[in-house]
Amino acid sequence: MTTNPSTPPQAPAVVRTRVELHDALASWTLSGPEPTDRRAVVMTMGALHAGHVRLVQAAREAAGPTGQVVVTIFVNPLQFGAGEDLDRYPRDLEGDVATLASAGADLVFAPTPDVVYPDGDPIVRVSAGRVGEVLEGESRPGHLDGVLTVVLKLMHLTRPDVALFGEKDAQQLLAVRRMVRDLDVDVEVLGVPTVREADGLAMSSRNAYLSDDERASALALSRALRAGAEAADGGAPAVLETASGILNGESGVEVDYLALVDPTTVDPVPADFSGPALLLVAARVGTTRLIDNQAVDLAGQEKTRD
C-alpha cells in the first residue's frame, strides 16, 4: 500500500469468509507483484494499540512498498482456558480498521469462530510439546497448543511469505519458530521488539483492564526486569534475586513465575551460565494477568528489548 501525503490513508479491505479471503489474495497475485514483493501477515486478536501498529509497519517493511500486508483479527477460543477472559476480551473491529489505515495494512481478515473452525472444536491440533508444558504452559495448560493450532491454520489460509510476531510474547514466538522449523512450514518468522508506554509498561490489550492504582503497581514488572538485567555481572542468581526483590516488594503484584531461561529452548539456565539469556515474568495485578521479558547477557553486557 502506498499513500500520498496530501491524501488521507485508505482503509484496508476487510474480508470475513474463506471465499472472500481467497479472492482477495488471488487478486493481488494476479496484479503482477514485483519479484521482490512478499506477502506479510500479522496475526492479532484485535483491540489494537501502538505495539500492533509497529508490527504492521514492520510487516510493510518486510513486504516491500508494493507487497501485500495482511492483518488477521480473531479472538481464538482455543487459547483461552476455563475462567479466563474470552468473553470480556476487548473487541473493536471498526476502531481496529481505522487504526490500520495509517499503519500500512492492505487487507484485514476478521473471521468468526465458525469460519476458522467450521466443524467446531478441531479434533486434530498442534502440540507445543515440552515448550508448552512450562512457564505459560504450566500456568495456562493447553494455551500454546491453541496458539499454534490457530497460527498454523491462519498461515495456511493467508499463505504468507513472512509472519511477524511481537517479542513481548517471548515463549509464543519461540513456539511458533519451533513449529515452523519442526513441521517444515515455508514461512519466515520475524520477531519485533516490545513497544512500551512512556512509563515502561509493555503495551498490551489487557492494560485496559487496569485501574490507575493497578497500573502503578504493574510498573514493578518492567522495573524488576531492568534491575535484573543490570545485575548480570553477578551471574544468574543475582539477576533472579534482584528482580524477585522488586516484585515481592510491590504489594499489588502477585507473581506467577519469574524465570531466567535459554532464549532458544526456555530451559532454565544454570547458576554458572554465561551468555545470552531471557528473563521472563508473569504476574497478576488485580484480576489482570500480565507478562513481560528482558534479554540479559550474563557475560556482563546488557542487551535491551525496549
UniProtKB/TrEMBL annotation:
GO MF, one annotated term: ligase activity
Segments crossing the lipid bilayer: none
Enzyme Commission number, as recorded: 6.3.2.1
Active-site positions on this chain: 52
Pathway: Cofactor biosynthesis; (R)-pantothenate biosynthesis; (R)-pantothenate from (R)-pantoate and beta-alanine: step 1/1
Binding site for (R)-pantoate: 79, 172
Keyword match Transcription: no
Pfam family, one: Pantoate_ligase
Broadest EC class assigned to this enzyme: ligase
Record InterPro entries: Pantoate_ligase, Pantoate_ligase_C, Rossmann-like_a/b/a_fold
Residues binding ATP, per UniProt: 45-52, 166-169, 195, 203-206
Cellular localisation: Cytoplasm
Main localization (coarse): cytoplasm
UniProt entry keywords in alphabetical sequence: ATP-binding, Cytoplasm, Ligase, Nucleotide-binding, Pantothenate biosynthesis
Binding site for beta-alanine: 79
Catalysed reaction, written as an equation: (R)-pantoate + beta-alanine + ATP = (R)-pantothenate + AMP + diphosphate + H(+)
CDD domains associated with the record: PanC
HAMAP family noted in UniProt: PanC
Further information: The reaction proceeds by a bi uni uni bi ping pong mechanism.
Family: Belongs to the pantothenate synthetase family.
Subunit text: Homodimer.
General function of this protein: Catalyzes the condensation of pantoate with beta-alanine in an ATP-dependent reaction via a pantoyl-adenylate intermediate.
Record protein name field: Pantothenate synthetase
Classification lineage: Bacteria, Bacillati, Actinomycetota, Actinomycetes, Micrococcales
